[in-house]
Design brief:
The structure is a homotetramer.
Chain A: E1 5-6, E2 11-15, E3 22-28, H1 38-48, E4 65-67, E5 71-72, E6 75-76, E7 81-86, E8 101-102, H2 108-115, H3 131-144, E9 149-157, E10 160-161, H4 184-199, E11 206-213, H5 227-236, E12 241-246, H6 257-260, E13 278-279, E14 282-283, E15 288-294, E16 304-308, E17 313-316, H7 327-348
Antiparallel strand pairs in A: 1-2, 2-3, 3-7, 4-7, 5-6, 8-16, 9-10, 9-11, 11-15, 12-15, 13-14, 16-17
Helix pairs in contact in A: 1-3, 1-7, 3-7, 5-7
């Protein structure tokens, strides 16, 4: 029932504000005997880390994870895995002006109204710093399902879209550029766009596409624990996400059944894959793909009119170090969440039949 | 952990196949003392019922709900509410040809592969008949939060879209036409489109927009139980749904932060509402709105190539009585799911503060 | 979160009052492909049934279970299993005198105070009729773990105790007498005692011992899902139960560590078994045994002073058909609950290791 | 589903081994706005702390809790509360001899068999050090329900029992002696007994009685979330506990209904309280009391025959610093668990009625 937990069998419960001493979490339900590759976990954290390139926030955080339990002699013991990431470079003074102010399209106002009391520094619990916890758990989840290949990438920034089907992209190239777009030409355009937006003191949205290959047939637990429902749940938990679609998505709504149906090959694969690898809530072994919509970051380096806790009109100046576009750093987060969901269903599927 | 349950405090657990004796469910966590309006529940069931108009399936099912417990002298007692809906007019012979066949883009294949054994009649557990259960629970949820107004409507059929903002629509007109579109002109076009598609023996997709008004500030439980995440989870649980977006959704990804931010009025309301009534996972009191994408129904009245359980190529003829477009009947289902989610958060929010 | 659910992976959610139309439940998480022995289920229901002997309540209820879903062609499909048991012989008039009265040591008063509104007929939701639902689910659970042998029996009635260790008892004899005590001599004494108590219009308590043999090593999930904790939880859910102990139990508190420790044999079995088959919350393969305390039934055939809802003193006459001693009929219920718990842990243990 | 979590609305999820860097946990669902008394938390930790007297283990651990999140300016924010307790004085060398050995009546063998891999230092996850986490959460729970008075005390050590009803005891005296027994005379006997046992290198069991006063009427959520069931679940989660009884408990099984029934006073209180403050799973406002059985600690300072992981017979010498009797230090733990359970039901009860 914890609202800070995700997962049924493989669960992650998290804590932490961006300006507390540490953030962290507890991974429960990870089977015993899993050899942990710590470098791979840190590598995923580095992909999310602030300050990694000129198009992301220039905050400088080490983001080193420290495991406190559940791993012994390099392998999981079946016990809960506690971990923490120290908050090292927070500059609380950046946020003093927010003590009594509500930033537009942030969580300041709703947290204040709901809880009557909030940690105003760096967004408190609503900060995207929380997602570093997800990276840790997702990196372990990936190690639990090594044969499943999860690749997310930036598929649009503002109005610049990759116009190719994912099948024609080379996922090896995702990490070859700082915007994490496997189409090099579009990547250059996207980077230029983000730089231009940044110069304006503004921000821009975008989308991430995630493709999951080599998914075993049978993952997903209807009726209320369908594979796509959990993926949507996970993705909509991510700060700034406004939408989720899988397979044919919103475009599919314009199609006829005779066009949309995925006809079978004799081996059970399908000739087309508008279903996106899921039928009836259960993976069918085809590539699973979905797309996630990110709004532009709400913190802009421009003065905006707003209100304070007294209901007075104020001018809010843009301060702090923020991302002009959240999408490049969100790519590993989408992968981490997808890995958590898939690993959970992988475990659940072990008990499907007598 | 039950995969046939939805909700945290107000939970619905369901059972039933379309060709068994009955479907039904158990509603748990409904507070005691709620006076039940049984007519209102039946009315919602009637909105979903097959055979209600010329553009939906012509199956004829009574869909009368029978309450078995938890209500005494017209009021809830706090005990679990058991209910069932008898399956009256199933024609199992319609499905004999499916015993060993897999319909394209249905759940036949994935159920068979996952469970090794399936009820092939009418889709078994994967049948949308299940959604009648959701209507029952959703109708009770609506009665639990009477001040919150939930209106869903058909916002597109195929390529025919309402091109107006929801604020300019008259929700009173939703039920005035059989496609459940409040824009009368577009409604006529949509109905004509569905009739044409039906004549072709084909099916067509569409979208439903849902607007929830008068939402109290403070509903939603970050981090992993955000309001939008649960709404997405619920909607993606619905058969044929391929996508979910709220507020500015996918369109918002093309915007700049300076355009997208919802500036405050002094009373805490916002001048614009691209946030869609949710900030940081918590309702902010503005209209909550989202859009759901439905693919075209997979069962078409045309012969399709498919395979059987022996991996042989077969010709599958379209039989049975199916919807040419699922959207008109899905409107009350979207509302029911939204009501379940909102009512759950309404209860959760009662314990937010000491 | 549902308070009418038990189990993590194999869950039972129930509904029903003794004087409604039916009671029933939904079993979720039962693996697909389990061949169901319906006779065995009915047989367990018959063991619990009222009217089965002279020492139990003379109510006459058919207690026939009807399965509504989740089983197809005799085997589970992996879908949720809905079932109901019709209430056939209720005599509501038996309870009219209770509309505004609170029976001593019943749930009447607490239900009224908590919910503000209660079904006063036959105890409503607090009726032990609910346990028929548990029998159904437990009987299926038993079929899921056929190699595990669960035997409960009456180990005391009032002050009459079996004075032998369970290892010297012949469990085959449990069903050979109406009190379900494998010690024939003590059984006769217990039956006589119950008959005598019944003649007095009074009731008497007792204990049930449950022995579970052939338990695989490894069942139980520390820290908060230990095997003994779930067994205790299940047993304390049973009406009239006041205590639970396993292994050496309360007696063990008087012992020294040097006496109490179970020394190992070289094969990992232990020379003694004061641990009761569980160490650190996990089964160790030895016989698991525990004891459950039942208070005397609160409904007596004597006039008692009580109060009504106006706070007035009333005389409450003993009416209706009730058990002079709940223990004989509780034996199969204890087994059913134990089976549910064990089957759940059996499933959970499938995902313990990579 | 996490097996390292307890609670429905107020949940505690924990991690940690006694010889890792830290233990800790996450408290989720604590309402916002609770002013935290940090001293009171530390005081409870001190009551549990090793080395506090001559009759407990002489290990020396600081047991200082560090809160990492969820509390801002001294008050809870509604966010999850992360905390940790550093392990400062572990002496891992104490446990080298256990790497391949199984201590009798410990969890070594079952953990090894279940997980195939275990942290053998200090019992790893099965160590009672975990209970320090519970103290922290329980101390916060106590602050959430300040009007409810929870008093646990040692009611027996070995064969030395308090022979008075709890109503005649002065709970103020519990902390006046090191064995935590409010009967001073018996306390002296118990202390002498433990000292004698300790000199023998042996250990002894005992019981703790817990009395909860001023419980509001209405706590508890039938059918499977009854107040006594959750209390039993919590208590049986505690290391060394073998039994739980409440109200009349096992003694009540020998009574007749006419003796056992608690007759009402006109104000709804009862003349007797054999029910132990709970009827039908719901508190009735009378004193809630229960008793918990603790076996003697398994680690004794004597040489015992045992086996190693190769199945060879070995001699195991008693090493390390252990409690001769676990009961005095378990008193605050029983209170902490009781507080967690009560606080959870207190929150759940807020949504019982419309």
């Amino acid at each position: 029932m914890s609202s800070n937990s995700i997962g049924k069998l493989l669960t992650l419960t998290t804590f932490g504000e961006s300006h507390g001493e540490a953030i962290g979490g507890i991974i429960d339900g990870c089977p015993a005997g899993l050899e942990i590759n710590f470098d791979a976990i840190q590598q995923e954290l580095n992909r999310r880390k602030p300050g990694q390139s000129k198009i992301v926030t220039q905050r400088n955080e080490a983001d080193e994870v420290q495991f406190l339990s559940g791993i012994f002699e390099g392998k999981t013991t079946g016990a809960s895995i506690g971990f923490q990431i120290k908050n090292t470079h927070q500059r609380s003074s950046d946020y003093n002006h927010l003590k009594n102010s509500f930033r537009p399209s942030h969580a300041d106002y709703t947290y204040q109204q709901k809880y009557g009391h909030r940690d105003y520094q760096g967004g408190g619990r609503s900060s995207a710093r929380e997602t570093a916890n997800w990276i840790v758990a997702g990196a372990i989840a990936k190690q639990l399902i090594p044969s499943i290949k999860i690749n997310a990438f930036t598929s649009s920034v503002g109005k610049i879209y990759i116009n190719k089907p994912f099948q024609s992209l080379d996922f090896q190239k995702i990490e070859s550029n700082i915007v994490r777009c496997p189409d090099q030409e579009k990547a250059s355009e996207m980077i230029a766009e983000i730089e231009s937006i940044k110069k304006q003191g503004d921000t821009i949205g975008g989308t991430i596409t995630c493709v999951i290959q080599n998914v075993p047939i049978g993952l997903g637990e209807p009726i209320f624990n369908k594979l796509q429902a959990q993926l949507a749940h996970a993705m909509l938990s991510l700060n700034a996400v406004k939408g989720f679609e899988y397979g044919s998505g919103f475009c599919g709504t314009e199609m006829k059944g005779s066009e949309h149906n995925d006809l079978f090959n004799v081996d059970g694969t399908t000739k087309t894959n508008l279903s996106g690898g899921i039928q009836g809530g259960i993976s069918n072994g085809m590539d699973l793909y979905f797309r996630v919509a990110f709004k532009p970051v709400a913190t802009i380096m421009k003065t905006q009119e707003s209100i304070n806790s007294l209901g007075e009109v104020i001018n809010l100046e843009g301060k702090g170090r923020h991302d002009p576009c959240v999408v490049p750093r969100a790519v590993p987060i989408v992968e981490a969440l997808a890995a958590l969901v898939l690993a959970d269903f992988y475990l659940l599927n072990k008990i499907t039949r007598v």
